[in-house]
Amino acid sequence: MTSQSTTRNKLLQELPASLRAEVVNHIHSDIIKNVIFFRDKGAEFLYASLPLVRRCNLPAKEILYKEGDPAEEVYFIFKGQIKLLSKEKIAFRIYKDGSMFGENDVVYKEARDSTAQS
């Protein structure tokens, strides 16, 4: 977590709960609007989970993770796409804007079973 997000989280903790939820929703309104997973979630869930979201931009053909890597994160695609590649480097699944992926490996504490590439 960056010092900026740590400072922001400390400031949020000092606000009344209703205002805190409103601020979190405002800060992350683009994610709530564009990522299907977050659209129907309640204020408490959004307040608890959205500050944990770390944004990153990947250039084309960048490897996000490799087959066999430990699964420690779930991914949400705000814009663009991610391809899951087999051992033979063949794309067998493509995730696009608004998608979520990687959750099964995290939940079942399994290593990544494919390579993810932007």
Protein model, in words:
The chain has 118 residues and is an alpha+beta fold. The chain has 2 domains: 3-52, no CATH class; 63-117, Jelly Rolls, CATH 2.60.120.10. The protein has helices at 3-13, 17-27, 29-34, 36-39, 43-49, 103-107; strands at 63-65, 75-76, 81-85, 91-96, 100-101, 115-117. Strand 3 and strand 4 (91-96) form a beta hairpin. The radius of gyration is 16 Å and the shape is elongated.
Give a topology summary:
Elements: H1 3-13, H2 17-27, H3 29-34, H4 36-39, H5 43-49, E1 63-65, E2 75-76, E3 81-85, E4 91-96, E5 100-101, H6 103-107, E6 115-117
Antiparallel strand pairs: 1-6, 2-5, 3-4, 3-6
Question: Main attributes?
Answer:
single chain; 118 residues; alpha+beta; Jelly Rolls; 2 domains; four-stranded antiparallel beta sheet; two-stranded antiparallel sheet; 6 strands; 18% strand; elongated; RmlC-like_jellyroll; cNMP-bd_dom_sf; Cyclic nucleotide-binding domain-containing protein; cNMP-bd_dom
In short:
This protein is α+β, with helices and mostly antiparallel strands and 118 residues long. The protein has two domains: 3-52, no CATH class; 63-117, Jelly Rolls (Sandwich).
Strand arrangement, major sheet: 1-6-3-4
Which of globular, elongated, flat, extended, rod-shaped describes the shape?
elongated
Fraction of residues in H or I helices:
25-40%
> CATH topology of the largest domain, anyone?
Jelly Rolls
Distance between the termini: 23 Å
Element-level helix/strand string: HHHHHEEEEEHE
- The unreliable regions are none
Level-1 CATH class name of the largest domain: Mainly Beta
What is the CA-based Rg, rounded? Answer: 16 Å
CATH-derived architecture of the largest domain: Sandwich
- What is the total domain count? 2
Calculate the mean pLDDT score and round it.
89
Organism: Euplotes harpa
Protein name: Cyclic nucleotide-binding domain-containing protein
InterPro entries: cNMP-bd_dom (IPR000595), cNMP-bd_dom_sf (IPR018490), RmlC-like_jellyroll (IPR014710)
Pfam family, one: cNMP_binding
